[in-house]
Amino acid sequence: MSTTLYLDQNDTISNAIDKVLKHVAQHLVIVMPTDLPHWHNNLSFSLLFETMKDNNKTAVVVSINDSSAELARKAGFTVVASVDEAIKIPAPQVQPQKSEHSEKDEKEVSEAKADSLGFVENQDIAELIPEETEEPAEEKNVKEESVISTKTVADDMPTVILDETPIKKAKKGKPSIFKKSIFWVVAFFILVVAGTTAFMLLYLPKATVELYIEGQTLSKQLEVSANPNALEPNSETKVIPAILLTVEESGQKTVAATGSKSVGQPATGTVTIQNWTDSLMVFPAGTLLTVSSSQEGAGLTFATSQSVTVPPQTFSIPEEGQKLYEAGTEDVTITASAIGTAGNLKANTNFAVGQTDYSSFKGINASAFTGGSSQTVKIVSQEDRNNLLTELAEELYEKGKTDLASQRIGDQAYDESLIDNTLTQTTFSREAGAEAAEITLSANSKSEVLVYSQSQLKGIFQYYLAQNAPQGYKMTDAAITVSVTGIEKSTTGMTISATGGAVILPEIETEKLAASLLGLKPAQAEAKLKEAENIIGFKIELWPPLPQALQSMPNRQDRLIIKLVQKDGISGN
User: 304 forms bridges with which residues in the sheet?
Assistant: First the structure.
């Protein structure tokens, strides 16, 4: 009866063989997983098959992976696609191990048979070689060599194996090739070791020495002139060249109008002017009539549309001793001074005429006034124009600053407060007071600024700082710092106020010092560095990290690096 064995995806061939040998069943159904990362070659399946065969075990392989199934078949396994199919296959009969008597019988039969070359199976080739006559003992140098014989491995397939029967060969006087080879191998090994040791001691060592030195600080305040007419720096006159950068910008901006006003028509009507004087009165066109204070719409003014002549008053005597006066009258059309419905006055409204006395002249309308109307609309105010101009000018200024910065070359610098920005052209789409929902402004501008070179300014300070450096100290460009405190326009360009500082370091002849350290032991190198002037401390790093007895400074100057480090308060190691 068969037993089912499931292999895991991560099982190697070694794991699989252990699992197979642990099973007591002689016939197994081995179920392979879909993917076996360690079983992608025929060797794994062949090794498993041979191991099972040597241990009198058989197996049917279950695999749905075409590649694994093909490799298993090539190794000798029966392969099916399911466990049910595998169980139905009967276990093959295992051939029992042959006894010693059966092997002896087969050997006797094989010895009776000769192969096609005239050899008998398992015949020792040494038997076919004639024996040599012995030479004198003092001339013999015997070396044993293995003799080739054959042994049956499979049913009828002979293979060549090594036998222990020696063949004696005579060697006279000279050492063997083997002894010569050993000599040259040992000599070569000694040469390699000696060369490697010499290389490690003479060429491989590398050292980095940091020398801590104490510097001094110098400072200087200067006013340097940047002149666009200067062609090159002049340290004595403290003048450096300046360059004028110019950019032109254009832009357009639209904003909503915020002003408002009422529009419409004034009311009109006909008024009768009464003259209660004895004189004829002429009122020119445009004479104002004002609604009297006791009337609705008091204070509203209306103007005559044409000149009007009002006759004087007349009287009659209906009875003796009684006079009845009647005013002189004349009709005239008047128009309200302001638009709106307020001018639509009711009939029988009284008016004062011009600057005359109300008791002498007055007006009255027989019919109501009409035609007055009004509505509020958006207009462009003067404030809208002013604000729009300010905003667009600011945008063009910012754009000009960006473009000026992009035109700088190298270390050129400038003060933004010195940028001149001018509007060269402005065009508004609406006048102030125009009825509109928005207003647009188009404008052009020009931005200019003088720039200077920071390295040239630094060079002026280097000139004056170097004059103040004490003897035995040196100053490098990297140690100089310049801080600009202010820039002002001048008649010749601009004046730069700045403070410069530098750390000066003692002069140390590093090449001469490095040459004196070559080949020294670390302790000797430390002693020499402690004796050197202007060195307040040091650190030595050696490579490779050899035992202390083998450590030394490099023998070549290109393998020794000396660095100067400004560091206060450090003592030598």
Answer: 334
3-state secondary structure 252-278: EEEEECCEEEEEEEEEEEEEEEEECCC
Contact (CB, 8 A) for 151 and 161: yes
Amino acid identity, residue 367? S
- The continuous run of DSSP H or E covering 506 comes out as strand 493-506
- Do residues 367 and 306 share a domain? yes
Residue 292 within a domain: yes
Cα 393 from Cα 398, distance rounded (Å): 9
Find the mean pLDDT for residues 45-66: 87
How far is CA 267 from its chain centroid? 73
Angle, CA of 74, 79 and 81, to the nearest 5°: 140
**Cβ neighbours of residue 101 under 8 Å, at least 6 residues apart?**
none
CB 127 within 8 A of CB 149: no
* Angstrom distances, CA of residue 11 to CA of 7, 25, 568: 7, 20, 66
What mean pLDDT value characterizes the chain? 82
- pLDDT tens for residues 19-41? 888 888 888 888 888 777 767 67
DSSP 198: H
Number of domains in the chain: 4
539 phi/psi in degrees, rounded to 5 = -145, 130
- Residue 392 and residue 423 share a domain: yes
Q: Nearest to residue 510, comparing CAs of 551, 478, 538?
A: 538
* DSSP symbol at 370: B
DSSP state of 550: G
Q: What is the pLDDT of residues 176-220, one digit of tens each?
A: 566 667 878 888 888 887 777 666 666 778 899 989 888 778 889
Tell me which residue of 132, 128, 127, 125 sits closest to 162, measured CA to CA: 125
pTM, 2 dp: 0.46
Q: Are 482 and 454 contacting, i.e. CB atoms less than 8 angstroms apart?
A: yes
Is the distance from CB of 464 to CB of 220 less than 8 angstroms?
yes
Cα–Cα distance for residue pair 250/445, rounded to 1 Å = 6
Residue 39: half-sphere exposure toward Cβ, Cα within 13 Å: 30
Q: At what angle do helices 66-75 and 42-54 cross, to 10 degrees?
A: 40
One-letter amino acid of 448: E
Co-location of 270 and 254 in the same domain: no
In-domain check, residue 234 = no
- Structural domain containing residue 84: 3-88
Q: Are 275 and 360 in contact (CB under 8 A)?
A: yes
**Is 135 a domain residue?**
yes
Clarify whether residues 60 and 11 are in a common domain.
yes
Ramachandran area for residue 125 (φ above 0: left; ψ -120 to 50: alpha; else beta): alpha
Which among 110, 135, 163 is the end of a domain?
163
Asked whether residue 572 is assigned to any structural domain, the reply reads no
Contacts of 59 (CB under 8 A, 6+ apart): 20, 27, 28, 29, 30, 52, 77
